[in-house]
Design a protein that fits this description.
- InterPro entries: CUT_C, CUT_N, Cuticlin, ZP_dom.
- By secondary structure, the protein is mostly beta strands.
- The protein folds into two domains: 102 residues; 123 residues, Immunoglobulin-like (Sandwich).
- The chain is 0% helix and 44% strand.
- The protein has no helices and 18 strands.
- The strands form four sheets. Strands 2, 3, 5, 6, 7 and 8 form a six-stranded antiparallel beta sheet that branches. Strands 9, 10, 12, 14, 15 and 18 form a six-stranded mixed beta sheet that branches.
- A hairpin with a 3-residue loop joins strand 5 and strand 6.
- It is elongated and about 70 Å long.
């Protein structure tokens, strides 16, 4: 036998997602969009080739591989699943027995120090922006688990002078330098299921509460926003 085939019961929620062997997201033989795998209009069939997909041989008779199923087209989110799949081929038995042991695996994200861009320059005391990541207890964090609730907090000082508008926010893959837009030029969320609209606790303080996500096979992520400061209340135009 040269591989195994996984059959996933049809689920419309999976249609826009991806399935891949962990560590093989760039290998077209081991990473596929789920909508390309529909076999009969209802089930998804994913073939794992032993010669190409980084499987593990566990003595004396078991082949193991870790499979990731992500529902978002690009990112690993809290709704993704990871499974250890094992096929056992008993030695000396002609009839092949497939034994599947599925264990859900957790993914982790390392969040680096954060960068902000100040878009206003003035003589004298100008605005100073800060961008931080905290947990639900408002403690600053630099590591998190996929799906964990975090807060992205953008503030401007002096807060008795300026109001704030977070524009052009990005998630940045520190290992590949890939950028993914979270908010647009107007400060509005582009993919609200991944990253929501900002909430304004004060005119000078904005917070976005979201479930942390990651790129497949990459765990270092940075968040960056343009910090637009205003003398008066910042314009909020998101619908």
């Amino acid at each position: 036998l040269d591989g195994m085939t996984l059959i996933l019961a049809g689920d419309p929620d999976l249609y826009d997602g991806r399935i891949f062997v962990r560590g093989q997201t760039e290998n077209p033989l081991c990473s596929r969009k789920l909508n390309s795998l529909l076999s009969n209009g209802s089930d998804y069939q994913f073939a794992i080739l032993y010669a190409h997909c980084n499987v593990r041989f566990e003595q004396p008779d078991t082949i193991a591989v870790t499979i990731v199923i992500q529902r978002h087209p690009m990112f690993i989110t809290q709704r993704a699943d990871a499974y250890d799949v094992r096929c056992t081929y008993p030695i000396g038995v002609r009839k092949v027995l497939f034994l599947f042991k599925i264990v859900k695996v957790a993914s982790h994200v390392d969040i680096s120090e954060l960068a902000t861009t100040n878009t206003i320059v003035e003589k004298g005391v100008g605005p100073s922006c800060s961008l931080t990541v905290t947990n639900e207890q408002d403690q600053m964090v630099d590591t998190a688990t996929v799906g964990e609730v975090l807060k992205l907090v953008l503030a401007v000082q002096p807060n008795d002078t300026y109001a704030i508008l977070p524009r052009n926010c990005y998630a940045i893959n520190l290992e590949t330098s890939e950028l993914y837009s979270l908010t647009d030029q107007a400060g509005c969320a582009i993919d609200p299921k991944l990253f929501p609209e900002w909430m304004y606790l004060h005119s000078w303080l904005a917070v976005a509460i979201f479930n942390i996500f990651k790129w497949p096979d990459h765990s270092m992520i940075r968040f960056q926003c343009d910090c637009s400061a205003y003398i008066e209340s910042s314009p909020k135009v998101c619908l």
